[in-house]
Design brief:
Elements (H helix, E strand, L loop, with lengths): L5 E5 L3 H13 L4 E6 L4 H11 L1 H4 L4 E6 L15 E4 L15 H18 L4 E4 L4 H12 L6 E3 L2 H16 L6 E2 L2 E3 L5 E3 L5 E2 L2 E2 H4 L2 H12 L1 H9 L6 H15 L4 E10 L5 E12 L2 E6 L5 H20 L4
Helix pairs in contact: 1-10, 4-5, 5-11, 6-8, 6-10
This protein binds nicotinamide-adenine-dinucleotide.
Amino acid sequence: MARQGKVTVVGAGFYGSTTAQRLAEYDVFDTVVLTDIIEGRPEGLALDMNQSRPIEGFETRVVGRTTTPDGDGYEVIEGSDVVVVTAGFPRKPGMSRMDLLEKNAGIVRPVSETVAKFAPNAVVVVVTNPLDEMTALAQLATQFPRNRVMGQAGMLDTARFTHNVAEELAVPVSTVRTLTLGSHGDTMVPVPSRCTVNGRPLADLLPADKVDALVTRTRNGGAEVVGLLKTGSAFYAPSAAAARMARSVIDDSGTVLPVCAWVDGEYGISGVYLGVEAEIGRQGVRRVVENPLTDTELSGLKEAAEAVRTKQADVSSL
Ligand SMILES: NC(=O)c1ccc[n+]([C@@H]2O[C@H](COP(=O)([O-])OP(=O)(O)OC[C@H]3O[C@@H](n4cnc5c(N)ncnc54)[C@H](O)[C@@H]3O)[C@@H](O)[C@H]2O)c1
C-alpha cells in the first residue's frame, strides 16, 4: 500500500493524542508528528503508538517531539502537508467556549506563527476553542491563503446530531443523515431540511417538539460530555472529525464536509469564517458548497455569521 505525506498534530493532550492515533491507524500517511510543550509526553505517546503497530497492523511511523512555546524543536514539522492545531485549554464544567478566548489566543497565535515558518505549505486544521475565533486567528498569524486554514466543528456537531437522531429512533447511525452549519456555539444552525432517516425526511418521523429537543441536545453536546467528565472535554468524536479532515486533504478526495471555512459571497454572506459545507482537497478548501436552505435555516446562518463576525474581528488584537 502506498503511504504518502506528513501530518503534524500540535498538542498531545486528549484531543491531539487521539487524533494522532487515528491518523496513524489509517495507515495512509508516511509520518505522523505529535508535539507538545510537556517534556517527554509526545515522545512517550509516539513510542507507545508505534509499539501498537504489530497488533493493529499499520506501518505509519509516529514521531513525538517536545517543543518550547517559542518554537524550539519545530524542525520536526518541516515538510508537513497538514497541521492539526489542538494546543490549548479545554473547558471545565460551567465554562463556555468563549471563556477560553484570551488564554487560548495566547497559545494559538505563537503556534500558528511557528507553523507558518516551518511548514509554509501546510493546510492547517484548527480545533482549539473557541473554534471560529481561533480559526480566524490562525489564518491571521500564519498569513496563509484562507483556503489553507479551516476549523473543525461542523463534522462533530453533525455527528452528534446524527447520533442523537439514531438513538431516539433506535435505528443504525448509517441510516441517518443530518447537517449542522453556523458556528460552534450558541449559533450552531441545525438544518432539519437536510435530515433524513433511510431517505425519509426527519419531520415525517418525529413531531416538531421532539426534533427541537434533539437540536437542543446537539447544541449542548459538548457541555453534556464536559459535565460528565468534569476534568476536560470530549475527544473521541472530535478527534475522529479532525482526522477525517486531514485525511481528505492528503487523499485530495474532494469530499464535501461541514467545516469552518472562509465564506466569500456564498449564501449572501462575506468576510467571515463560518460553518458551511466545503469540498476538501490538497489545497484545503477547494470551494464552499452552497445547497438550498429553507428561509428559517438561511436566516439562522446569517445570524450566526453576524454573531461570529464581530468576535473574529476582535482576534487581531489578541
Ligand atoms: N473544535 C472542536 O470541536 C473541539 C472539541 C473538543 C475540544 N476542543 C478543544 O481542543 C483543545 C484541546 O483539548 P484537549 O482535550 O486535548 O485538552 P488537553 O488539556 O488534554 O490538551 C491540550 C494540550 O495542549 C498542550 N499545549 C499547550 N500549549 C501548547 C503549545 N504552545 N504548544 C504545544 N502544545 C501545547 C498542553 O500541554 C496539553 O497537552 C481545547 O481548546 C478544547 O476546547 C475542540
